[in-house]
Amino acid sequence: MQAGRSPVVCLPGQGRAYRLPTMLATFQADDAEAGNAYSISEWRLEPNSDGPGAHSHEANDEIFRIVEGTMSVLVGDNWVDAPAGSVIVIPAGVTHDFANRTDKHATLFNVFIPGGFEKNMPAIVEWYEKNG
Fold this sequence. Notes:
2 helices; mainly beta; Jelly Rolls
């Protein structure tokens, strides 16, 4: 075990939740828990709703695993309809987005490497409140 870190156990319903108009982001491990090595979160989208919008992270890789429904994921210039069980790896610098284009909820599990993403969530929630 890396010095200064302990095992993380986050049971269903636990974590730090951030509600956005059509999304619920729940962070299960980040910052000190993960030694900023990674950030783990789950993103649940309402039916027929957009995700965060096309963007990239210059210094961070992301791993998506679809755990519920079918999530449409932008990978570079291409949209992929990814059913539950799909895994998509987004290297740093690659434009990406996700959306739920179905009539059922869709959820993706996200690993952000290295960590530190959660510190952006209060500003993201505030932006949605003002512009949503």
